[in-house]
Amino acid sequence: MQAEVRMVRSSLDWDSRLRIAIGAARGIAHIHAQIGGKLIHGNIKASNIFLNSQGYGCISDIGLATLMNPISPSAMRIAGYRAPEVIDNRKATHASDVYNFGVLLFELLTGKSPANTRSEEVVNLVRWVNSVVREEWTAEVFDVELLRYPNIEEEMVEMLQIGLACAARIPDHRPKMRDVVRKVEEIPRVNTGNGPSN
After folding, report:
1. One Pfam family from the UniProt entry (predicted)?
2. What pTM value is reported for the model?
3. Which of 1, 30, 152, 165 is deepest in the core (most CB within 10 A)?
């Protein structure tokens, strides 16, 4: 039985978060490689990531959202995930899927939702992470629950850099998903194995 990913900070250690990122990246890259590169997910978000028996993230909801839900595609997207260039799901691209994956990485690193509401103010996670990094307060980005694990700071920074590249404002500046998979798998602590990802 697969479990939906929820940002329950106390139950997700660093290795678990890495496995979620690796599996989800592999799944998105697999989707992008199908039908001659013409397939796009268009709705990558935490509630569409499930865990397999090995704890790797698995992508769900490919193509079903628009078929099963009478709500307009743009209304289905959760605030904070939409790439800046996407007006609605019909305009989704590989680059917008990569952006969504960057937001997912930020969630895994910060333990925060993509659009936090604090005192009637919506805080966009991508903008917040970028502003903190720009001010060189990078340590402030990371979930305090992660700070209790020794010797992972370098790996968290590596994942943060991947997330920043994925969530670049200009679509052409974002990496291809196959390159993202390689970079996430290079983060050293996790034995990536060949766990299923799709």
Report:
1. PK_Tyr_Ser-Thr
2. 0.80
3. 152
